[in-house]
Amino acid sequence: xxxxxxYIFALSVVLLGSCxxxxxxxxxxxxxxxxxxxxxxxxxxxxxxxxVGVFNSASxxxxxxxxxxxxxxxxxxxxxxxxxxxxxxSTAYTGVFKHANILIPTATAQKKYVQAGMAKVMKAYxxxxxxxxxxxxxxxxxxxxxxxxxxxxxxxxxxxxxxxKLLQEVSDTLDLVASGSLAHxxxxxxxxxxxxxxxxxxxxxxxxxxxxxxxxxxxTTRLVDNGAKGKIEALLANANVVASLSGTAQDFEFKYSSxxxxxxxxxxxxxxxxxxxxxxxxxxxxYIGTHFIWTMAVEKGNFSNTVANDRSDPRTRYYFxxxxxxxxxxxxxxxxxxxxxxxxxxxxxxxxxxxxFAGFWGRDHGDNSGIPPDGNFRTTWGMYPAGGEMxxxxxxxxxxxxxxxxxxxxxxxxxxxxxxLRAEAVLTLGVAGDAKAFLEAGVRKSISKVVxxxxxxxxxxxxAVVPSTATIDAYVAKVLAAYDAATTNSDKLNVVMKEWYIAxxxxxxxxxxxxxxxxxxxxxxxAKLPEPGSYIRSFLYPSTYVNxxxxxxxxxxxxxxxxxxxxxxxxx
Length: 572
Hints:
The structure is a single chain. This protein has helices spanning 3-27, 44-65, 76-79, 86-109, 113-134, 156-179, 200-220, 228-236, 239-244, 268-273, 290-299, 316-319, 415-429, 435-456, 469-485, 489-503, 508-518, 543-548, and strands at 137-138, 153-154, 252-255, 320-321, 380-381, 409-413. The chain is mostly helical and 572 residues long.
């Protein structure tokens, strides 16, 4: 190359670089946000609402499988199609993960560690939820935009490990913020619909919740983690975790309001079941599972319209609202099971139909006999957790503006759950402690939470139906007597898991996890068909994922277990 050519080449490089620099400068919006200036408060509400959407969907599917609300079926394989899960998949990846991945580095750069911690907790929980539902899912290559439009899957155990790492980061960082050891920028400038505080106390709540969710993760994976015992014991010894169990202030729950429009911020179960005018317009949409009604109102002690004679679970009138208390004259064609014999596989003690019992009107597991015009008779969601109506033997149809007007909660993780978990840890892992004492604490905290809930939303309950201390004590005594009568740890664990199952009304995600991990409670109602197929150990991948992603893994089958489910039991 001649000297002249070298000169020309060098000059061109300079000129091109200069032009490129000028173009770059022109493309920079002087008013646009930078990581240092972006408003994180614009992202957090989106993450919150998306996270709650993920929880609500996972909870609904879990409630259906565990008989709390109806699964139509009639077989497990026919109950759900791949497109059933498009919504939760999209909400997780485009609602939670996408926005969390933007917010976390931005908030960290601004020293807004609480905002970053909140996003990490919600992201971690959503990550584990997808694994719990589907097994292996896209993670390592997900949410990269045009850099990877066909992300491959990541092993479920690796996703769990990444989620736990996020929770540990939250715990470590926010402990420092709460103690004043780490300077914090502006706290969230919007309403935190979980804890409602935007200060160092809020930092402590989120730090502690990260620890509690780590305990939950270690219990969920205890069948495949030989180190679960030590990890759980270490966290349970933490002073803030211990303190969190003394009351309900730490309860991790999303709080709805009674606002009806612009936007409608009522509990989705209220919106779906209290949408009429109390006459012929509108009706309850859900069917409560016959099995769950029976568990509360028969198995635990017979329900009575006369409060003084009522021996059912003290939470029954809070959980359920009966639209009728007198079913005389009801056309049997409205519900086919009322004129049918129990399926041959049902045991004599197994509930079936229950129509005619004190006005309760539910549906059996896997009953797909059609939807009769019985929306004005169905037992529906009550005061807790949906913010519906208290059952005072009204026997009137649901309508808008009844009861708590939708100011309910999503019970994601509560103090009672931690107590039941501790009991399970003692019985299965040998963690130090008194399983019976933890069982009692869990039952009492659950009942206290439910009975005290109306007051938290400004609803005054007729004192005549509020369970007395003696009533609650009698119920607890029955539970403890059943525990004492159990001769093996397995039988004792079944008592614990039954009470946890009852306390989980509104949280089917953990009800399903618990059942797959333990096979308990062990007396679930059978499906209506004698051969419903395998209980769903993992759901089908969503159709959007399978159809649009060339790297999608092989489709799940109902009997394919997620990585932490090594329970050999054949589930109902």
